[in-house]
UniProtKB/TrEMBL annotation:
Domain of life: Bacteria
Taxonomy of the source species: Bacteria, Pseudomonadati, Pseudomonadota, Alphaproteobacteria, Acetobacterales
Residue stretches spanning the membrane: none
One Gene Ontology term from the biological process aspect of the record: GDP-mannose biosynthetic process
Protein name listed in UniProt: mannose-1-phosphate guanylyltransferase
First-tier enzyme category under EC: transferase
Catalysed reactions, as listed in the record: alpha-D-mannose 1-phosphate + GTP + H(+) = GDP-alpha-D-mannose + diphosphate
Gene Ontology MF terms: GTP binding; isomerase activity; mannose-1-phosphate guanylyltransferase (GTP) activity
UniProt signal peptide: none
Similarity comment: family membership: Belongs to the mannose-6-phosphate isomerase type 2 family.
Length: 484
């Protein structure tokens, strides 16, 4: 397969603004994907995460730095993952709350228009896989030319089967002067099996990829025509945005006034400017475990296995473990996903039902619905090891040069034992160096801070004790990451 770098070198004469939308929680990929750390930040298809794969599609000659629109809670994860793959100076725009794709795209168009109203934007979701990147450049080149003529372009993926999990686009007449580009006759919601088979056999319908190419001017004009309330709210949110480290934080009050609506409903299904270009990018919407089974390498019995897995007398199953040894025997067409605190077992035909399980967990107030035992923070991460009545044990890892907020607790005391590295601990008026195999006690109500002054990660075991051990029992007095 052609490498991504080789494939996208062909785009060097195209000046594009990549836009990455990263607002979803990926609940159908639970228990791996959860709202605290959703699917776009996991390595599901390759050694890279989904958002890294997406960013590298539009990195290099011919592309500007990407505009990334993401959840405020994911800002440090996003920045770190982009840095890991050499994406420098991205514009990471923080949504104070989710408002679907139309407001997010309006944000990107307004930001691009500040320097060039005729800038061409390529909008991509952060969680789709392209297995044939070598096919992108000529199609992208055509899309840019069509977009510069004042139209809005989407890529329609040539279907390989009668899929019921995707929306469809019907091709209309071919655009004069643009071979391979067609007016959109209509959009079709996810069909039932009978209608999907009929559309597949007709040859007129394409899968809706959710990717768009347009100029900032065109999109803003159409947004003004069809959804002026969105544009008014987003324009105010962009105008009043604040810079926070390397992030651009939209004004929360203004952004909250925007309607919650997708770009399909807001513009694509209403404008006369929609154009579709049929393409074969090897596109997959990585939206379910069954889709991942299709994407993954398989053994001679059709089983895809990830992690420490033993399979016996089983066929056409997806078995994944992120740690503990997992063995299956005599099973067929199953999805088995083992996480540190939850296990999913489902028939492949019911992969879409996982979302309903997450809804049920949320209604029951189960934290497994939204958060992992390992929680990432801008300074590193912590992992809950043991929880009991009036006590909890955690592993805390602080990256070199990072520090936690200066804080206190009303309901718990803490005992820190350093197992690797050196900790600098503030305890009221004291500054204490705590080395490996040493410990420090933090009484209830004491003002304290943990820092890593060294060059290797700092690892410590924290033992909490008290009547209430929730994460909301943190009073931050000072924080370098501007958290509340």
């Amino acid at each position: 397969m052609t490498s991504k770098k080789q494939a996208y070198k062909k785009c060097r004469n195209i000046r594009l603004v990549p836009v990455i939308l990263s607002g979803g929680s990926g609940s159908r990929l639970w228990p791996v994907s959860r709202s605290s750390y959703p699917k776009q930040f996991w390595s599901l298809v390759s050694r890279l995460t989904m958002v890294q794969e997406t960013a590298l599609r539009s990195h290099g000659p011919g592309f500007s730095a990407p505009v990334v629109v993401c959840n405020n809670e994911h800002r440090f994860i996003m920045a770190e993952q982009l840095r890991e793959v050499g994406i420098t100076a991205p514009r990471i725009v923080l949504e104070p709350m989710g408002r679907n794709s139309a407001p997010a795209i309006a944000v990107a168009a307004l930001l691009a228009a500040e320097t060039d109203p005729d800038a061409v934007l390529w909008v991509m979701a952060a969680d789709a896989a392209l297995l044939k990147p070598e096919n992108v450049p000529p199609v992208l080149d055509l899309a840019v030319r069509v977009a510069r003529s004042g139209r809005i372009v989407t890529f329609g993926m040539v279907p390989t089967k009668a899929e019921t999990g995707y929306g469809y686009i019907e091709k209309g007449a071919e655009l004069p002067g643009y071979d391979g580009a067609y007016a959109v006759a209509k959009f079709v919601e996810k069909p039932d099996a009978v209608r999907a088979a009929s559309m597949f056999e007709s040859g007129r319908f394409l899968w809706n990829s959710g990717m768009f190419v347009f100029t900032a001017r065109t999109m803003l004009q159409e947004m003004e025509k069809f959804e002026p309330e969105i544009l008014t709210a987003v324009r105010e949110a962009v105008k009043a945005r604040q810079t926070d480290f390397d992030f651009e934080r939209l004004d929360a009050a203004a952004f909250a006034r925007s309607p919650d609506i997708s770009i399909d409903y807001a513009v694509a299904e209403r404008t006369d400017l929609m154009t579709v270009i049929p393409a074969d990018f090897g596109w997959f919407d990585v939206g379910s475990w069954d889709a991942l089974w299709e994407l993954s390498p398989k053994d001679g019995q059709g089983n895809a296995t990830i992690g420490d897995v033993i399979v016996n007398n089983s066929t056409n199953s997806y078995i994944r473990t992120d740690g503990v040894l997992t063995a299956v025997a005599g099973v067929h067409d199953l999805l088995v996903v083992v996480n540190e605190d939850a296990v999913l077992v489902a028939h492949r035909d019911h992969a879409q039902d996982v979302k309903a399980i997450v809804t049920e967990l949320k209604q029951a107030g189960r934290k497994e619905a939204t958060a992992h035992r390992c929680c990432y923070r801008p300074w590193g991460f912590y992992e809950s090891l043991i929880e009991g009545t009036r006590f909890q044990v955690k592993r805390i890892v602080v990256e070199p040069g990072q520090k936690l907020s200066l804080q206190k607790h009303f309901h718990r005391a803490e005992h820190w034992v350093v197992v690797e590295g050196t900790a600098q601990v503030t305890r009221n008026d004291e500054i204490i160096l705590v080395r490996e195999n040493e410990s420090v006690y933090l009484p209830l109500g004491s003002i304290h801070r943990l820092e890593n002054p060294g060059r290797i990660p700092l690892t410590l075991i924290e033992v909490q004790s008290g009547p209430y051990l929730g994460e909301d029992d943190i009073v931050r007095l000072e924080d370098v990451y501007s958290r509340n």
